[in-house]
Amino acid sequence: MTDVLFCRNGAADDLVIEDLRVLDPAEGLDLVATIRVERGRIAAIEPGRGTGRAGLVLAPAFVDPHVHVRTPGREDEETIATATAAAAAGGYCAIVAPPNTDPVVDSASVLASLVERAREEALVPIGFMAAISKGLRGEELTEMADLAAAGAAAFSDDGKPVASAGLMQRALQYSAVAGRILTLHCEETSLSRDGQMHEGPVSAELGFAGWPGIAEAAMVERDLLLARYENRPLHLMHLSAKESVEALRHALSLGVAVTAEVSPHHLCRTDELVRSLDANAKMNPPLGGEDDRQALLEALRDGTISCIATDHAPHALHEKEAPFEEAPFGVTGLETAFAALYTTLVEPGALPLGTLLERMSTGPARAFSLPVPRIAVGERANLVLLDLEAEWTVTADGFRSRSTNSWLLGERLHGRVVRTVADGREVYSL
Amino acid sequence: MAENTLRVVEDLRPPDRPARRHLIGIGDLDRAAAGRILDTAAALARSLEREVKKLPTLRGRLVVNLFYESSTRTLSSFDLAAKRLSADTMALRSSGSSVDKGESLKDTALTLAAYDPDVIVIRHPHIGAADLVARATNAHVVNAGDGKHQHPTQALLDLYTIRDALGRLEGVHVAIVGDVLHSRVARSLLEALTLVGARSTLVGPPTLIPRGIEALGCETSTSIDAIADADVVYVLRMQHERMLPGAAFVPSLREYSALWGVTPERVRPGQIVMHPGPMNRGVEIDPRVADAPQALVTQQVRFGLVVRMAVLYDLLATGPVRVAEVEPMEVA
Q1: Is the residue at B323 inside a domain?
Q2: What is the span of the domain harbouring residue B199?
Q3: Structurally, how many domains does chain B consist of?
Q4: Structural domain count, chain A
Q5: B75-98: pLDDT as tens digits
Q6: Do B187 and A207 touch (CB under 8 A)?
Q7: pTM for the full model?
Q8: Contact state of A205 with B104 under an 8 Å Cβ cutoff
């Protein structure tokens, strides 16, 4: 396959990481060891002494298949340099950006300019999705084969659904030629309408136009039906509704080659957060009810959902400081994902640490056919060092991202990324 | 009448008053606070029976009315309420101001805050606008309607009107009829009724009853027959936009009126009829009902003035209520 991850050049590092608990759930690894990295590759894994250092865990670095980089067009909100710096601080060794930029990534020339910029600016490897339809208009297919040859990592009309079932069918058929996964934003817009938040008792009370979970599930059902009929693989983005989880389970039981992702905010919070009327509680799809959250968590635990993706969506401060209905959808997430999930799910015992690490790394890498970060001799070093005993407060001035629209501002979190090695280079150290 | 001939009727100021408070939603009030505001309004109503209707209570205070939506009754009511309490007032409307030039709500609020207003009264088409102004300024903020969210002074004046007519609030049954989905009046009133121990039933087309609203402690019905055993029939305004293509909440105003219009045949003697205005006569309310003695629509407007005076007083006053020599009003 053509290279789909791009990064600026630099010398690979030699590193020695001594006497740490090393955890690689996909490799079945959980031991105290010393890791030697020579010229960017894991050269040795030697048994370490004692029980490791308190609270510290070395794991395969994370992969995020859903990071809005806002480049080209809104470089005031995020750039390739700032997004990849934020990714490094979040423990990621690879990220993939959707194509809903201005201009849209729907031609090889736009994609080529992004690849060029990534080779100059990207601190960690970054991939780019190209659009399924030209201009995301849902009318004509993009030149998928040409885009794949130019380095497209996947195809998506993210931000919008492919409204026409007929075009979606053609896209599935043609994706076989491109050899890349289609990744879908599922939303039946005649049901989500002008919805501002999840439809339920909270929207009834606050007066916001409701966005029912079935707006997502109706489109999930349609796309799974098409994928089954065409016998083509599919990836579902940012699932948020219990009805979507049911549809996904059913499709998997029928053998459909479907993978799915869920965002930290949908796993950690519910529509109750909207009571703050803070626009940092506004995202697409919206935060669901507690039954939705539990269904997503159960699906993540049992592997029905194999990926955690942040849907990192930077927005300018002045746009989010508006009344909720005027503000755009989206929140940032790269720099808080691990700590938010560790604090909310792992510490209380709702999710095993190993499962979390696997869903943030191996799961997304496999779904997108990216190199899987492994702690094994001979592999490129893609490592994250976590301090599970660290406590910290999320503040607006603590981000490497250019935007600060986090749903966690002011929150106290447990667990922190303290060091990241991506593609053989140390890219972050707290 | 000079101030020193007034006597203290009752000290109705909130105990242990924090430095800065807001009235953004009914949720900002507990039952005691709601009762206190209604009692203060009753005491203030006496002052309006005098020849000179102005009280010196808020002399030197500044009340800014910031209105982003057209409004006749609410703006005039707040303006007069502040003037009757001797406060200075200033009105800013979105048309013909810097808002027309694309200024953000935050910047408009910060600009006004530079004049150190004691109270900012805001009406805005979007939910959360009053919260945003409260965060951006140091003023007490009163929400005069934020999108479909809350309109707390309307709910308080409605409680006052019901209490005035029936002599009680606890156990009163109110049927709210019409477009609940798009109504901030309905949301505030529903919460306020629950707060004072009244019972409420929402009646309207299934498309205009918000899914999950029962969690607020009300009953719902899609049949107009459900208003029969209510003490109060509260009629909501039905807006033309609801039938537009793409909205399709009801097929036509004609069918709406036929199924949910409040007509003389559907109202029984002794029932009170209320409406927050402006009314669409012949659509949600039959003109014969609107003009019947049991309709308290103009009382609602009149009581709106004293209730808004009471709200401003409650937020700002530093001295007890002083009114002319009259008997204290019976309070429930």
Answers
A1: no
A2: 152-299
A3: 2
A4: 1
A5: 999 999 999 999 999 998 876 666
A6: yes
A7: 0.92
A8: no
